[in-house]
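User: Can you help me understand a structure? I only have the sequence.
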Amino acid sequence: MKFLIDCLGGDNSPGTNVSGALMGLEKYPELSVVLIGDEAGIEAELKKTEQPVDRSRIEIVHAPGVITGEDRPTDAIRLKKDSSMVRGIRMLREDPAADALLSTGSTGALVAGATLRIGRIPGVRRPAFCPILPTMTGGIVGVCDSGANVDILPEQLQQFAVMGSRYLECAFGIERPRVALLNIGVETEKGDNLRKAAFPILENTPNIHFVGNMESRDLLSGNYDLVVTDGFGGNVLIKTTEGTALELMKKLKRDIYSKGIYKLGALFMKKMFREEARFFNYQNYGGSVLLGAEKLVVKGHGSSTPSAFFKCVEQAHQMAASGMNEKIAESLAALQSQPV
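Assistant: Let's start by predicting it. Here is the structure, written out as tokens:
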């Protein structure tokens, strides 16, 4: 198994990317990695590590250019040919042995590059991002799409449901994931034209477990495994949920330190607060997978820590080992063969 690691573009690159990749090599003996970025910087990070490094499983490709958030995605993919991301995308397309590309760089450029240069699984209209969030029952919930496609058709929501269902089955072992449609109410007739048209299509899709509409307030309830939506609504949903959780944790911390008696009480609840902070920390749930690309692409948070990037490696490994893309292709082919 061979993963390409884009070592530039993140807030903590290349350290985070190199360290996370080394953790992956330690866990998976069948894995090899290609570290793409500034060669001197990568070598410096490799020398820092205290764990043994098997250089026979590591290749370094010098690509010092960086695509930033200020770059126009399509222009960056076209013009910044020496960037680590563009080099990684090209290698993923051209190297038959390469299974996945992992990056913490520009989301827009990664989507543009993967769509334009790597290609799509047969039958896929548009790839879609599917990040994972924790639920109040100790499980997870995926949101597909979370920003790759702003304007879509009802049939694309159907494909998001199929691709997301296979992803949750393959990467997380969830049997018959419960699929919901993001809407302004749970009633069948609610929503705009897109959702009204999509509801009966999802309801009659044979290879998913559709459970109806979902209001945004129920995202973390544990009643759903996958939520399908357009990229605009999904992006707002994800960022609002993450932002609310972070601000609540900040307020709780301020309140605790505001009075001595609160501090005293907090001492007895220290373990619980630590567990809650771990629960709300998005770094513990891996990256956002670009479903529908012909090869595996995982986008980690720009502020990822080494352990968070390692979670991305784990995701990619599980998807590659389970043959997720092949199963998505089979499901979409079966869908197309259904009588209208």
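Now, to help you interpret it: Residues 128-285 form a domain with the Isopropylmalate Dehydrogenase fold (CATH 3.40.718.10). The mean pLDDT is 92. Let me know which part you'd like to focus on.
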